């Protein structure tokens, strides 16, 4: 019996670790002063701590935009410094010089719209998960989790009906239930789409992703979510 409960506990830990991964659209906004736009080259930039994450996000968004008939390109080769924070600015370079570098890159590559995706915040939170596999079923007026006992042909008994030791044992079982801690990690991303020539923000969205297990899978979910929102709001047209 003890071995069986240990197996149940192990399974519950595995399930808790594998479930809960999700990406959701928190908010989005479209510039109502600008109608639908058609662009020849939409550049996607993901500013991330590492190049692998940047590559996966940019490719996923570009592929989704292309599937909607839009002309999009990733920028991990155009703007190599965007994926490596240490190369973004030299010690002698001021913010204005950085702006000029970016503007020149955009002009050189004939980019007329640009989407910038950045990590806004990361939050970590621990929570305690009870292991219910160690609870026993105590017969009497109350059952497992204190559920009322129903006897065919008889009235439903009140919650506290039955032998006192059943109710006492049930509550002691609940109190001394073993458990474990899990850590939830939430990532908040902001995506901004700009018209290069007009230097105007067309659309912005914020998303949150909880307990990411596969960056590649989550990048695809993220891409589908923001591109669908762009198309639904008619920000871009093929």
List keywords for this structure.
238 residues, 27% strand, alpha/beta, 6 helices, elongated, 6 strands, 6-stranded mixed sheet, disordered N terminus
Explain this structure to me?
This protein has 238 residues and is an alpha/beta fold. Helix content is 34%, strand content 27%. The protein has helices at residues 2-18, 51-67, 85-88, 95-108, 164-175, 215-232; strands at residues 22-30, 42-47, 72-74, 113-130, 179-195, 200-210. The protein has a 6-stranded mixed beta sheet, covered by helices on one side. A hairpin with a 4-residue loop joins strand 5 and strand 6. Helix 2 runs parallel beside helix 6 (215-232).
In short:
The chain has 238 residues and is α/β, with parallel strands linked by helices.
Annotate the secondary structure layout:
Blueprint lengths: L1 H17 L3 E9 L11 E6 L3 H17 L4 E3 L10 H4 L6 H14 L4 E18 L33 H12 L3 E17 L4 E11 L4 H18 L6
Helix pairs in contact: 2-6
Helicity, in percent? 25-40%
Q: What does the largest sheet look like? A: 6 strands, mixed
Strand content: 25-35%
The end-to-end span amounts to: 63 Å
Mean pLDDT: 76
């Amino acid at each position: 019996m003890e071995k069986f409960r240990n197996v149940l506990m192990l399974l519950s830990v595995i399930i808790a670790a594998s479930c809960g991964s999700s990406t959701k659209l928190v908010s989005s906004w479209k510039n109502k002063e600008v109608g639908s736009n058609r662009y020849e080259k939409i550049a996607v930039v993901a500013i991330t701590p590492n190049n692998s994450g940047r590559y996966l996000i940019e490719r996923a968004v570009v592929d989704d935009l292309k599937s909607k008939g839009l002309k999009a390109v990733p920028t991990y080769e155009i703007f190599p410094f965007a994926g490596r924070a240490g190369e973004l600015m030299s010690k002698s370079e001021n913010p204005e010089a950085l702006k000029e570098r970016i503007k020149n890159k955009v002009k050189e590559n004939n980019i007329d719209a640009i989407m910038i995706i950045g990590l806004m915040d990361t939050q970590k939170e621990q929570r305690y998960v009870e292991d219910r596999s160690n609870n026993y079923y105590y017969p009497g007026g109350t059952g497992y989790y204190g559920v009322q006992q129903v006897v065919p042909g008889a009235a439903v008994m009140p919650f506290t009906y039955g032998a006192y030791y059943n109710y006492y044992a049930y509550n002691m079982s609940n109190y001394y239930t073993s458990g474990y801690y899990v850590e939830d990690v939430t990532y908040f991303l902001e995506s901004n789409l700009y018209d290069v020539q007009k230097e105007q923000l067309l659309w912005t969205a914020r998303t949150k992703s909880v307990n990411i297990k596969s960056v590649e899978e989550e990048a695809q979910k993220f891409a589908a979510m923001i591109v669908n929102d762009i198309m639904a709001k008619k920000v871009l047209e093929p």
